[in-house]
Amino acid sequence: MKRVHKKEDIVKVGLDIVLSKGFNATGVEAILKKANIPKGSFYNFFSSKEDFALEIIDQFFADRVEILQPIFNSESLPPLARIKKSFETIMSVFEDNDCSKGCLLGNLGLEMSDHFEKVRQRLEQSLQSWTTELSGLLLRAQKEQTIPADMDVEMLAENLISSFQGALLRSKVKKSTEPLKNFIHLYFDVFLSRREGQ
Hints:
Number of helices: 9
CATH superfamily of the largest domain: Tetracycline Repressor, domain 2
Low-confidence stretches: none
Strand content: under 5%
Number of domains: 2
Radius of gyration: 19 Å
Largest sheet: none
Distance between the termini: 63 Å
Order of helices and strands: HHHHHHHHH
Mean pLDDT: 93
Structural class: mainly alpha
């Protein structure tokens, strides 16, 4: 078996395990076994398991940005369509994983926010960056008069993410994308749908 020596490789291996099993259920030994590395190598790169958690959050968020940024930047789509497509893309990844794993930010938020302050802060930073991205697109939609001028775009962006995370949790329990599809339909085909004459 090929040995993994790079820190980035260890992070990617660990991220996959944590997404599948949760952070507390993932022992360092499980990461070492899958990565085929000696125990000393882990602690050469990470001062603690909490430090490792920060690294996998950063990796997950970087992976998510790589997938979503081209959608957010797509000038061929109007702003609301870009946001809708971004959520559909995440849903598609979830579906490809047999309605398991979900979003690391939501998973660790539930599991670790009350116990690891540095992890909570890093999760908040990641979620705030996501909120800022959506807020910018919602502001453009507002300027194009596709959403009301008096709508607080930052509040809406945060609510979209919160509602999506809730729908994702429900989808994990239900083992179905139905709650996610309902979220997308309600927000983008009903709540934010522009109706002529209104």
